[in-house]
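Q: Is it fine to ask for two folds in a single conversation?
A: Yes, each is treated on its own. Send the first.
Q: Here.
A: Result:
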Amino acid sequence: ALPSGDAPAGAVILVHEWYGLNDDMRRLAGRFAAEGFIALAVDLYDGRVATDAPEAMQLSSALKTPDAVRIIAAAAEALRALPRSNGRVAVTGFCLGGAMAIAAACGVPGLAAAVPFYGIPRAEYVDWSRCEAPILGHYGAKDPIIAAERPQALADAARAAGRSFELHLYDAGHAFMREA
């Protein structure tokens, strides 16, 4: 999704939640474009979209984090090469996508920022020594899936390693950004 006008703009990679690249994620890409960003919603499931939680669990379980990070890295490279790009690329994501945003922050050089929403990758994909991007994390204090202590511990570990991790906990549960 492209912002109006022809001025150079920053770009954001949007990584879907466990349902896949659905209409909600496409709407979010449009919202980013309306705010002036070049937005690219990546598809980690190769065109498949889940319609219920069991199917989403199956798709997300089959996804390999290194593959997702490679897709995000390719998206960042493609966005930087666009004539409209100002060269700055951030990544954001929701649930599964939030976890992949943090993994990308630790595995994709040159990201301008990472903004995860209620997602945490497995520990083997978090290497703070490789993280260049500042992180702005958004999590629900009442999330039954990711207890508030987990993002707090993640942010504390990042800061202990000298990385920037600003954490926001909301009076909300999981998937509080989902529109549909």
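Q: Second one now.
A: Result:
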Amino acid sequence: SMNPENGQKSSSLLQFFREEPVFTRLLFGIMLLFFGYYTYATFLINVVRNLGGDTSGMGFLSGVSAAIEIPFMFAFARFRKKWHLSSILTLSVIAISLKILASALVTDMTGLYVSQLLQGPGYALFAAAIVVYVSKVIPAKNLAKGQSLVYTMEMASGVLAGLIAGKLYDTTSVKITLLAGFAVTAAGAALCISGIKKTR
């Protein structure tokens, strides 16, 4: 397909992976990174009930989450002035992982509310930073492909978590399931960090 901006032909998927080996590593890192995220988010009611909470507790948790994300989204431009984009992205990947670990280790609803604070430096910063990062490291002809691949990897992660974590929740405990999610996410975080190029 032609890229309208410069008339250059965008690469096929396999060409893209060959041309962008470091970014490809980041992409597969993202797929693993979000496994724990969706293991938690998709089955949040299981996590909440396990800690003695109910549907209203889950609703409050979702509200807290959104409230924490908003200021981080707005503060992103300010963070950009102070830190390298690659540093912000690295921080967000670590925060996403720590949130999953915290959700596995907390013993009551209060702990879960506190662990939700990591949603700001985690998912909110990641969502803001990854878009800008892709535009910096991927050539214009492949920009749309780079952006859509990030989204595709996130979605694939959600599908995998739905299938695998769902089985784990049914056959083991919530804590074991979340720790398994964290293990995959931590591996993803390491892969992501190795695939993030230093960039302003």
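Q: Anything structural to flag on that second result?
A: Two points. Residues 51 and 108 are 5 Å apart (CA to CA). The chain has a mean pLDDT of 95.
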